[in-house]
Amino acid sequence: MPLRSILLATLLLTSCGSKGPQPGPSAPGSLREAAFPIGAAVNVNLLRSNAAYREVVTREYRSVTAENAMKFRSLHPDAATYTWTDADYLVQFARQNNARVHGHTLVWHNSLPAWVTNFQGDSAAWENLLKTHIQTVVGHFRGQVSSWDVVNEAIAEDGTLRPSVWRQHLGPDYVARAFQYAHQADPDAKLFYNDYGHEFGPTKRTAILNLVGSLKSRGIPIHGIGLQLHTNSNRADANLAAAITTAAQSGLLVHISELDVAMNPGKTAGLTWSSALAEAQKAKYQFIVQTYNALPAAQRFGLTTWNVTDADTWVRGDCSCPDWPLPFDDHYQRKPAYDGIVAGLK
Ligand code: XIL
Questions:
Q1: Which of 61, 221, 266, 324 has the smallest number of CB atoms closer than 10 Å to its CB?
Q2: H/E element, 193
Q3: 121-173 pLDDT, tens per residue?
Q4: Exposure string for 51-87, b = 16+ CB within 10 A, e = fewer
Q5: CA separation (Å) from 113 to 116, 151, 181, 244, 296?
Q6: Model confidence at 16, in pLDDT bands (50, 70, 90)?
Q7: Helix (H) or strand (E) holding 207
Q8: Mutate to test the pocket of ligand 1, among 73, 74, 314 (most ligand atoms within 8 A of CB)
């Protein structure tokens, strides 16, 4: 065979070999190269309409979570209506870019439509509502969404079960049944209990670990713990480390599921960004990633930041203050925090 044909054949073999889907775009030095999946919570409207935003998500992340598009109110606004358009768009984007989709979230006390909060019915009717929602949603995305935050934020700050509509109408064991329903609808999906505040101190952390541990020992299909880790510059490294390492002691998968590092915890109205803040934030990101990276590889499900850039962070709306919690700035450029993540991966 002439040299030219051999070269051509080799090229063809390497570019369209029989190994299934082609790798997505992976810029050298992007977060896609990390040993575990790094992802972000994505705003579907921005993904559609903002090319710079989409470029960052495509280049850097191999996991995506819908910031809002898979919440109850978004997917199931009326009893008889499911709206899949935005969530399906994200799933299709992920498929094209060889990224994983983490589902967020099936059962939460927030983001409920009025028809649920106003729902009148006995406990059997409530049970049917919960089961139907979970199984319709998980069933719709079966094979495309590989993991779910089944229950989000069920534990209150004092370690008791939060008095949500679910707890009120279904009793405390609704958490276990939610996992069973999700597992029936997609036996291959990895199922997570997701919450915030593991780093606040032992009260809430212990309550969460006890809940998860008891589900596991009862044989309830739970596979992982999501640590939201909405954190800030004041949070001590020791508390962040305790959050991450105690979660791993459960033996389950650990997902840092909603990471951001707010730099204006005092909510000062006129605060401006500075290199000192940038360096402090870099150190926090590096510490968190380094601590997570030290967990057993089989338990590192991934690390997801909550939003992509400082321009689209939920923190500014939540605190009504200036803040810069993410690894990309208002102009979609990498910040020192990004270098902190990279350093933490080494
Ligand atoms: C937030 C979104 O970012 C906002 O856009 C929305 O208005 C409220 O919810 N914990 C969670 C996430 O589990 O779903 C929340 O997302 C942030 C806190």
A1: 266
A2: strand 190-195
A3: 999 999 999 999 999 999 999 999 999 999 999 999 999 999 999 999 999 99
A4: eebbebbbbbbbbbbbbbbbbbbbbbeeeeeeeeebb
A5: 6, 17, 21, 33, 40
A6: very low
A7: helix 202-217
A8: 314
Phi/psi region, residue 49 (left: phi>0; alpha: psi -120 to 50; beta: rest), is alpha
Number of domains in the chain: 1
How many CB atoms lie under 10 A from the CB of residue 294? 13
The predicted-structure confidence for 220-273, as pLDDT tens digits, reads as follows 999 999 999 999 999 999 999 999 999 999 999 999 999 999 999 999 999 999
What is the predicted pLDDT for the residue at 15? 36
Q: What percent of the chain has pLDDT over 70?
A: 92
CATH code, domain with 37: 3.20.20.80
Looking at ligand 1, which atom is closest to the CA of residue 153? 13
State the residue range of the domain holding 199. Answer: 3-344
Atom of ligand 1 at shortest range from CA of 194? 13
Residue 29's pLDDT band (boundaries 50, 70, 90)?
Answer: confident
CA atoms of 222 and 193, how far apart (whole Å): 8
How many H-runs (helices) and E-runs (strands) does the chain carry?
A: 14, 9
Catalytic annotation, residues: 153, 258
Q: Nearest C-alpha to atom 6 of ligand 1 is from which residue? A: 68
DSSP 31: G
Q: Which of 46, 151, 152, 258, when mutated, tests ligand 1's pocket best, judged by the most ligand atoms within 8 Å of its CB?
A: 258
pLDDT band at 28 (very low <50, low <70, confident <90, very high): low
Quote the ligand 1 centre to 256 CA distance (angstroms): 15
Residue 187, CA distances (Å) to 77, 96, 145, 190, 222 in order = 26, 24, 12, 8, 11
- Ligand 1 atom with minimal separation from the 314 CA: 3
Kindly list the protein residues whose Cβ atom lies closer than 6 A to any atom of ligand 1: 67-68, 152, 228, 258, 314
